[in-house]
Amino acid sequence: MIRPSLCAMTPIVFSCEQLRQEDIQHGGILLEPMGRNTAPAIALAALHASLNGEDPFLLVLASDHLIGDKIAFHQAIGEVEILAK
Question: Which residues form the Nucleotidyl transferase domain (predicted)?
Answer without folding.
Answer: 27-77
